[in-house]
């Protein structure tokens, strides 16, 4: 992977960057995505944010080598600390857990002012992001699920709701994704078939536990999830 050829995962993320926007890539690592987006004319400017010094220095060097210092600002900071309110139109966060992504959005809530779109690629726990969207007036406008190098990734695209109407999702949509469960592509089927297998194994072990009452809530949630997934997959 380099600034001219992204992974399938990051290329999918790049598809949803608002045309001619200024976007922030949080946890940018090598700044591949910002460099690619600028070179391909997907955005007019970008901010590459990194909290760890090593990747921050690598991103600085990458932007310098690409001669894009006038278009890409590399900044060191924790999550959305690297941007100001009303500074960017679009935010990308890729390659983290869904829980961590929602934590970043929560901590930097006031800096989301002026942001029109979030493009989020959780490695696990996408339901955390969907829950956050429902609770914070962001509406999912698209989702993709892809497989790359035997790993399955979900890409969630959300837009800020400008009206007072509340945004709701069913339990199945929160878990599986409203767009993904309609399309049910091969990556989706593979992911949830494997999840079902794991959940059933966990349930069996729970049933063998010495004190099943202690884990009854977890068991009920698992049974509910299994039922939801089976219903969608059938």
Topology:
Blueprint: H1 8-14, E1 21-26, H2 32-39, E2 43-50, H3 53-65, E3 72-76, E4 90-96, H4 98-107, E5 117-122, H5 126-135, E6 138-148, E7 151-160, H6 171-176, H7 180-183, H8 186-207, H9 216-233
Parallel strand pairs: 1-2, 1-4, 2-3, 4-5
Antiparallel strand pairs: 5-7, 6-7
Helix pairs in contact: 4-5, 8-9
Please summarize what this structure is.
By secondary structure, this protein is an alpha/beta fold.
Question: What does this protein structure show overall?
Answer:
With 234 residues, the protein is an alpha/beta fold. 42% of the residues lie in helices and 23% in strands. The chain is built from nine helices and seven strands; from the N terminus they run αβαβαββαβαββαααα. It has helices at residues 8-14, 32-39, 53-65, 98-107, 126-135, 171-176, 180-183, 186-207, 216-233; strands spanning 21-26, 43-50, 72-76, 90-96, 117-122, 138-148, 151-160. Strands 3-2-1-4-5-7-6 form a seven-stranded mixed β-sheet, with helices on both faces. α4 (98-107) runs parallel beside α5. The longest helix has 22 residues, at 186-207. The chain is elongated, with a radius of gyration of 19 Å. The model has no long low-confidence stretch (mean pLDDT 94).
Instruction: Walk across the major sheet and give the strand order.
Output: 3-2-1-4-5-7-6
Share in helix: 40-55%
State Rg.
Answer: 19 Å
Separation, N- and C-terminal Cα atoms: 38 Å
Taken as a percent bin, the fraction of beta residues is 15-25%
Q: How is the main sheet built?
A: 7 strands, mixed
Identify low-pLDDT runs.
none
Q: Helical region count?
A: 9
Mean pLDDT: 94
Number of distinct beta strands: 7
The shape is: elongated
Structure class:
alpha/beta
Q: Topology as H/E string? A: HEHEHEEHEHEEHHHH
